[in-house]
Amino acid sequence: MGLADLHALVPVVAAAGEKSKTAFYIAGGVLAAWAVLVSVVGVTRPGFPGGLTGQRAVIGISASLVVLTVAMAVVTASKPPKESEAKAQAPAPPPPGGGAAVAIAADPSGQLKFNTKSASAKPGRVVIDFNNSSPVPHNVTIQQGSKTLTATSTITQSKTSVTTALKPGTYTFFCSVDAHRQAGMVGTLKVG
User: Fold this and answer.
1) Residue (of 108, 107, 127) closest to 183 by Cα position
2) How far apart are CA 163 and CA 169, in angstroms?
3) Distances in Å between the alpha carbon of 167 and those of 137, 143, 191?
4) 80 and which of 65, 137, 181, 188 could share a cystine (Cβ 3.0–4.6 Å)?
5) pLDDT at 75
6) What is the per-residue pLDDT for 19?
7) Considering the entire predicted model, what is its pTM?
8) What pLDDT was estimated at residue 24?
9) Helices marked H in the chain — which ranges?
10) Domain range spanning residue 153?
């Protein structure tokens, strides 16, 4: 895959409804590989890149890859929903006839954590009430094993909810925005 192929990805990614970060990861990977290649060649070959033409070529390719990677970051960046749209989703009432409502909140200061690392619910219809009063976009995604079952809307400074049917078992809840899960926005939901 050449530099021209990566440039061709920009309009494709920009036109996509759900923005995939794959193009950004590819561009970043190519940039990192280029940096390693230039470093290795520079250390092992005295006089690299050899003359003004070689220097300009290395600088030109490096600058192009940096610009491409930044462009992919901008193009694939997610935008949080408008505040008016997020606030229009009122939390659902507790489910009738079984199940439970589970309240989870994001840290109001903007730190990447929930107010709890564990929650419990009765089997049946479970309402996940999510409150995010911070300006950082978050959601609550429910997963069992590697299968994602449901997720709230991604919101900032508002509340939302989602209802799902859960059987007895252990589930994981986490924020699926960027690398928030890896940063610690994760917990366990026990149903039973």
Assistant:
1) 107
2) 17
3) 29, 12, 7
4) 137
5) 83
6) 60
7) 0.52
8) 87
9) 3-15, 22-44, 51-76, 83-87
10) 83-191
Query: Which segments of the chain have a pLDDT < 70?
Result: 1-19, 78-99
pLDDT in tens, 31-72: 999 999 999 998 898 888 888 999 999 999 999 999 999 988
For the chain, the domain total comes to: 2
> Do residues 13 and 76 touch, judged by C-beta distance below 8 A?
yes
Residue type for 147, please? K
Q: Are residues 10 and 98 in the same domain?
A: no
Count other C-beta atoms under 10 Å from residue 9's C-beta. Answer: 20
Non-local (6+) Cβ contacts of 115 within 8 A are 104, 105, 106, 107
Tokens for 91? 């939390």
Out of 76, 95, 113, a domain closes at 76
The pLDDT, as a whole number, for residue 79 is: 62
Q: Are residues 71 and 116 in the same domain?
A: no
Q: Which residues contact 8 (CB under 8 A, 6 or more apart)?
A: none
Which amino acid is located at 50 in the chain? G
Q: Which one of 76, 101, 124 terminates a domain?
A: 76
Amino acid (one-letter) located at 26: I
Axis crossing angle, helix 3-15 with helix 22-44, rounded to the nearest 10: 160
